[in-house]
Amino acid sequence: MKAFLTRAGYGPDQLYMLKDYRDATTADLVPAMGQEETMRAAFKEYGFNARYPRAGGMVEDSDGQLVMIYDEELGSSSWQ
Question: What is the pLDDT of residue 80?
């Protein structure tokens, strides 16, 4: 989501977390999709994680493996 906002011209002046941090390992888990599809999937994932939270910012990837979604610019799990 941050990449879409950045490409649209938004930056830290509009939203403090839109700096340079990118977790390549976690980003690579996201399949290539258009902006609308990505947003739809992100909201669906957020809803799932809100209903069925895991401790310590962990979430399940598409294979059922637990991964940490962390954004250095937020200082916490980025889905929360």
Answer: 46
